[in-house]
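Retry 2 of 3 after timeout on previous attempt. Resubmitting structure tokens to design endpoint.
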């Protein structure tokens, strides 16, 4: 039922034993009427989110990979350890996508790769364990708390990133950009607001900022700045 609290999950569209393990694809959908934000709690696996101006629902394609496992073993692991839900909670949607650790497996851990389409007006709150993150054309506020893996954003609203490690690229941000980064390069281009950076290590490249650039801390790495219209402050 559209707008209900229940998970809307379609039948698995693909399930087969691949050379590197078992792969299964599942689709989830949720009516986005009245929703302001999508909160994503993701474990290991890539995440791609794209905003769509005419979309009125949240559409998720989840690619589940259980390495080095046959179909029977993989299905047992999925049934007992996997959390994959998309639900409404007030004016937010909540997407949970991860494997709970059972201690039963030896070797590579299972992953869930996510491809998500949302109305472009919606905001994002992402808590991600590991794996690349790519976000495009999401005009709401975007908040990312990431353990490791590259982050790429284009055409986004207000941006806040707290990142452990991995490269970060933010382009065409319509509001302010705030980044706290442990290690990895930072590239920020074409920002309509101000940019605030706190960087442990890695090069910084910032260009075409309409307001201020404040580098609160730069541990190590080169700094390149061009086209900042406001003030530039750097505290080493």
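Retry 2 succeeded. Sequence:
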């Amino acid at each position: 039922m559209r707008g209900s609290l229940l998970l809307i999950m379609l039948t698995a569209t693909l399930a087969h034993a691949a050379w590197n393990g078992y792969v299964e694809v599942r689709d989830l959908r949720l009516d986005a009427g009245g929703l302001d934000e999508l909160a994503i709690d993701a474990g290991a696996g890539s995440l791609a989110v794209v905003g769509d101006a005419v979309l009125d629902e949240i559409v998720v394609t989840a690619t589940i990979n259980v390495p080095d496992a046959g179909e029977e073993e993989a299905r047992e692991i999925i049934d007992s350890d996997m959390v994959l839900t998309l639900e409404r909670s007030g004016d937010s949607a909540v997407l949970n996508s991860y494997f709970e650790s059972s201690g039963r497996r030896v070797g590579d851990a299972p992953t869930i790769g996510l491809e998500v389409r949302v109305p472009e007006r919606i905001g994002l709150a992402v808590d991600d364990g590991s794996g690349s993150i790519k976000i495009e054309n999401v005009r709401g506020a975007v908040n990312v708390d990431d353990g490791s893996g590259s982050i790429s954003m284009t055409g986004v609203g207000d941006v806040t990133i707290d990142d452990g490690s991995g490269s970060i690229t933010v382009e065409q941000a319509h509001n302010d950009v705030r980044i706290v980064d442990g290690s990895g390069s930072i590239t920020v281009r074409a920002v309509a607001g101000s940019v605030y950076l706190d960087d442990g290590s890695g090069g910084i490249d910032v260009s075409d900022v309409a307001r201020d650039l404040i580098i609160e801390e730069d541990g190590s790495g080169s700094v390149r700045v061009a086209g900042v219209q406001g003030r530039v402050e750097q505290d080493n």
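Attempt log closed. Residues 31 and 57 are 4 Å apart (CA to CA).
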